[in-house]
Amino acid sequence: MSDAGQARRRALRLSLPVLAGYIVLGIAFGATLAQAGYGPAWALLISTTVYAGSLQFVMAPLMASGASLLTVALTALMVNARHVFYGLSFVERFSGLGRLRPYLVFSLTDETYSVFCGMDEGESGGVMVRVAAYDQLYWIAGSVAGALMAQGLPFDLTGIDFSMTALFTVICVERAMNRGDRLPMALGAVIAVASLLLLGPDRFLAPALAATALALTVMQLRAVGEGERHED
Question: Which whole-number Å values give the CA distances from 54 to 4, 22, 51, 93, 94, in the listed order?
Fold first, then answer.
């Protein structure tokens, strides 16, 4: 078998665990988008050009409500800021991939990042690109299927947009159960509720994320400073 064939098989095997999650969540996004008044063509366009998972769920109501570009930009920055840190850990591995590098930066989602972290340092760039491409294709397929299902099948899909929230809730609860210090999560919850009450459901997300990130950064800097003083 040629090197390209081996790379395809290796990438397909690595990406299969992502398939199940992306098809289901993609269907949820496509249905959410269709309920907001946007059809399969929009699902295809957004999942191809934006491809940002949780941000896409947030985009649907923003688009439906006619939110300003500034609001969309700030929300995107807050929701997907974690991807900056993902990318920093792969700067060296991506730097030698030439024209493939921009696509790998663009397609580095949470799940693709997890797959990359489990790969050997010497894994070929071709395998990495194929993993990223397969993952995006799974998401696109699920998104288009969800939009088609919402428009053409007699299913009541009310509440399906909660699927991504449910996923992150499960991750948060599991993290809380395995972590001794639960103050950061409590702080985030308090800030979110306060922002919701003060700003309303349509405007609280970006400010809540920004305030939480700032508060956690201050906490971390204080903890580092106290640790250094104890060492002295």
Answer: 33, 12, 9, 26, 24
Q: How far apart are CA 148 and CA 207, in angstroms?
A: 34
**Cβ atoms of 103 and 126 closer than 8 Å:** no
Contact 34, 145 (CB under 8 A): no
CA distance 71 to 81: 15
pLDDT computed for residue 156 by the predictor: 65
How far apart CA 107 and CA 93 sit, in angstroms, is 15
Contact 189, 201 (CB under 8 A): no
Are 59 and 50 contacting, i.e. CB atoms less than 8 angstroms apart? yes
Question: What's the pTM?
Answer: 0.76
For residues 105 and 138, give the distance between their C-alpha atoms in angstroms, rounded to a whole number. 18
**With contact defined as beta carbons under 8 Å apart, do 30 and 3 qualify?**
no
| CA atoms of 173 and 189, how far apart (whole Å) | 12
CB of 135 closer than 8 Å to CB of 124: no
Select the more confidently predicted residue: 126 or 181.
Answer: 126
